[in-house]
Every structure is written in C-alpha cells, then in structure tokens.
Input
Amino acid sequence: MAPARAEPIVIAIDPAMRGSFEEVRYALRTLAHTAGFSTHLEWFTDGARADVYYGPRTDVTATVRIPAVPWAYASAPARIPGASREALGVPFLTFPGETFGSAIREEHHVAYPCDVVFATYWLLTGAAEPSYPRSRFDDLDLGDSPLVRDALLARPLVSLYAAQWREWLDRAGTRAVPWAWESEASRFAFAFSHDVDYPELIRPIEVLRVLQQRGATGLGLAARVATGRSHFWTFMEWVTLAARYGTRPCFYFMARQGSLLQYAMGTPDDFYDVRTPRFQRLFAELRDAGCEIGLHASYHAHRSADVLRREVQRIAEAAQVECAGNRHHYWHLDPDAPNETLRRHAQAGLRYDSSLGLEYYPGFRRGTCHPFRPFHPGRREVLPIVQLPPAWMDDHFDRRLAKNGITDPEAAARQLLDVARATRGIVVVDYHSRGMNADFYPRYGPWLTQFAERNFDHSLRGMTPREIHDAFIERERQLDAASSDALAPSGLTVSATPAAFEITPMRREDIPAVATLHHALFGDPVVNGHSIATLGADFLADAFYTLNLDNPGIRCLVARLDGRVIGFSVYAIDKDSVFRHLVRRHPVRLALAAARTLLRRPSTIGAFASNARYMGGEHLSFLDGVSGWWIVAGVEPEARTPAFEQRVGGKVAAQLFDQMESHMRAVRCDAWYGVVRPDNPQINAFLQRRGARAVGTAKAQGLEMRYYVRRYSEDA
Output
C-alpha cells in the first residue's frame, strides 16, 4: 500500500469548550490520529467551514458535527454512563444529563447524536476505574458497568469512532495515513506476549498438588513431574508457535525475587532470580531467536518510579538488551490512581506498557484496540509513554469463565480479532510462559495453537510489541509534522482553574497532609469529644490512613490546589469493615501506632476507649440496612470563601460529596449515614440539602450526636 500524504483535517472547537480545552484537544487528536489524520485545531468562528466541528451549535457546516456535553471534563470521574444506545451502526455511551439527539447521515455530512469526544476522554482516561468494586488483589469488577453489560469491551468505541472518521473523511477527499501493518493483504497486527510467572516448577509441591487434586488418576502425571518430564520451562514452544505466523514472541520477566512466605503474606511476586546461570543461558537463546525481552513489574512496583527504574535496569543488565516494555504482575496499577502509575512508567525510562487489561474480562479496557498515548487528568498532560492495549489473556477462557459468563471462548476471541481487523487495530494476547504445558494448562497454549490454526489468515501481520510501538512512533511523527494548533494564540482567556484544582482518590504521598488537616480541623477534644482526630496527626497518618489503604470498603477523596491538599472526605461503602479491617489485617502495626501515641500523650487513653466501640461496627436499630458511612470531611477555611468557590466552580465540600455519591451509586451502595452534633447548624442543614434525614440520636465520641441517613431508594 503506497504511503499517504499527511493532509491535516480542520477541527473547529467551539469557544464554549475553552474551560476543558486541554482534555478536548487530547480526545480529538487521539481520534484523528487513530483514524490516520494530522490536524489543524482552531477555535470556531461564525461562517467558518471545518472537517470536524465540536460544540453545542447545530447550524455549523462540517463533514462531521459533534454535539458537546454541558459540563466540564474535570467532572468525568463523577459521570457514570447508563445503558448504551445504537445509532449510525455503532454503540454510544449515554451519560445522565446529556441529550441523545437525532443521528444524521447524508452524503457529505454526518451529525452524531451525542458527545463522542467526552465519551472518548472518559474511556481513554479510565475515569470510573477508581470507583469500581475490587477484589483483595485490586482486580476490577465491572459487572455493573455498561462496558460489560452491553459487551462494549469487545466493541472498542474509540476505535470504532476513528474508523468512521476514516471512512467519512476519506470519502470527502482526505486520505488517511495507514498503519505500518496495513498492506494489500494484512489489516491488523497480532503480538504473542508472555508473562513469566513460575517458570521453574517446584517438583515436591506440584507432585503433592497433583495427587491431592487428581487422586489415583494423577499418578502418571505425578511421576512425570517428579522426573522432570512435565515442566514449565516452555519458552521455545512459544517461539515455535510465533514463527508459524512470521513473528517472534515477547517475554516479560520479573526482576524482583519473591518467596513463598511473602506470597502468603500478600505480596505474590515470583520466586526466580534472573541473574542465575540458567536464566542467562535462556536470555542468550531468546536473543538469538529474535525475541523481545521486557519487564514484568512486581506487585507493588506501581508505588514508585524509582522501584520501576531499578527493575527495568535489572532486566536490561541480566538479559543484555534494552528493556523497552512492561506489563504489571496481576495487572496491578495503583487502583486509586492508575494514570499516576502510567506516568511513573515514563519516569522509569520505559517506552511502552501493556498493563491496561482486566483480570476477569477479555476485551479492551479503555475503549481502543489501537496503540495510544495516555492522558493524566490531574496534570492535564499527555504522558510520554505508549499504551498497547491487551485483548485477552489465557485465564479469560479458562478459570475466569464462571465470572465473565463466556460460553463460547472461540467465538469471544474471534470477535476481538474481527474488530481489530475491521478498525485496523492490534491484538496483543497475554499467555503465561508455563501455559504450553498441556498436562496442567490444556486451555492455555494448546487452545491458542488450535485457535490460531482455525482463525489466523493473511489479514493478520505478526509483530512484537516493540515493533508495534516503533511503528506507532514513526506514524505519530509523520502526523505531528503536518499538524498545527491555533488554539493557544486565539486571544481567548483560558482559566487556569482546572490545572490548579483537582479532586482525586487519596494517594500515599497525600497521607501526611490529609492527616495534618484532619487533626487541625477536628482535633480539639473540647469541641469534638473523643474523635479519632484527637489522637493526633501521627496516629491518623500511621494507623487510620496508611493501614486502610488496602481496605476496599473505605475511601478518601482529596481536593488539591496547585498540588497542595486543601480538602478531604472520608467515607465507607462497608461501614463495618473500617476498623475491623485494621484489627484483622494489621493488628501489630495498629498496636504499635497506638502504643506510640499513648506513650507520647497518655491523656488519649479515653479517646482510645471510646473509639473501641467502632471495632465491631455501629449496631443501632435505625442503621439497619445501611451499609455506607460518611465518616468525616474537611476543607481549609481559605477554600470556603466565595472568591475561591467562584474560581473552582462551586463549593469544594459539595464537589467532594458529589464524587462520593457517584461512587456509592456505581457500586450499588444504596444508603449511607452521617453523624453530626445537634448544635452544628451548618452541617445539619448541609446533610438535609443532600437528601439525608434525621433518624435518631445516640452517644458517639463521648457526645450526644444526631444521626442522618440517606437512602437512594427514596429518590423516586
């Protein structure tokens, strides 16, 4: 296929969108680049013609017209879409408060029925990911999301919209720049990638496991395991399979060596050491075969760019290659701030990552089957790292079938091939290196081998993940070279507010500031009785906040101004788990924090005794059936002034509350309660305005307190 000239399309953005122009620009450029078009971005003016218009007007002449949502993009985490709707041959996410208009398809004009630019941003940034229910390993449960309910993981909306743009604009006379894997025959790229978990089978453990699980029928396998004839060192089998399709596999190795004890204690890293002679010989064989070697980041590596950097360096040194790519063990990005983990990838020197998969569900987590650059909402910047979205992993069609409900794995996998073929995307599969052992994993490597024989054809082009990355970079350079941006010199005054103010889930580095603010606002025992805040900022930081980081039943939202914490809100979707979690999961660390506090301030013994009643949860008759708990919220005085509220678009406390309630509704937490002093008229009135009603009084924190309950079922 002859290379196309990068002719820019004109995208006119209505000035009404200027408050979100960084986010709008990112989403529009990603759609255009995915379709294969360079861009000229400009603010819309009356009478101007454009290839694409984005904004609220309906009287604009453009090849593609997209209506805009009436809200700021900064509110994306609080926007939970309902069921999707079909029009123009594709599905659309529908958000509460958004009008779904008429879809128009004429010879030289198309009008979308709703805002596909906001939907693209919402998907590509994973806006709702921190609010999804999680397992103890932080596996996201999307069972109540339209992405699963409406099967949208197999219909990647961003890629589908980009494919439409390519069709419509090509018909209007603008040729798209093809992807490197497009030719007269091939249409999509396919990459074999393999996480190296447990490559050295521990014979005594596996012999016992086989006999325990299979009884007498497992004697033959137990003998093969004991003699080494059945093993997990199956790297060359994958090399052979990939060679059939003209490519080589990529193996992601773990740099951190774990142990059985650490595994049992909740850090499930692998046990091998890449510096041993056996792995040195393996690396030489893989290099000779032309394979790619990358990092399989350890379970907690997402917490620090320095840790990631050291792991990258260790793999590079051990394998004697450049370690360009990564996939996280257990898909374990920071569950509360996944885009912060993506930023740390770039800081660690990685060129690409392929960790945006889901433990339970196959498909495209962020709505695209194409390589893309992620966006950091808090920083309002495109990140210098490329994401290669994985399509499926081995367990999706084996041990996760009961959860994802797939009855025909072959049809499910074929659907992902088909959508990549139709949109000229990529399919990156993740199969554990040990999966070629048919004795243990008949539905891993053996299944994929048979699937490939039946479904791979000339439309597939085999590539390594690094080759896909390099092709993306080269195409991006070509598109950028022909692009221009007239947004900045438009003369419009663009508020700096969204860049300076943000609300996100609490990060580990926020804990000292949150604890200090919590103590400053609520630490006076005269006013707040035996509030946990009276135990001091150190106890709040070391015990309450740090030890609850791994508690899926509790969350802290943080409001920041220029990166500084100016407000917070703590709430639970499982009120009984808040203190019970501390006692059951972290008893030693909790006891040490309490002992340090008592030694420094013996007067706090009363507060400890008073708060002990919460260890088993609150059992009051008027709280029956109430699972949620609004625990505490605070905003610095300077952030409560009318001038500040005008700057950030409203009251900080209300915005914190909006995000809390959005999360609660998303996870089907149908009711929550809050506790207030009767003589605090502001908070009593605030809760009443939020739809909560007083249900009774009881002693709490050594004071007589009024209890409010908010039930969403009463909204009707």
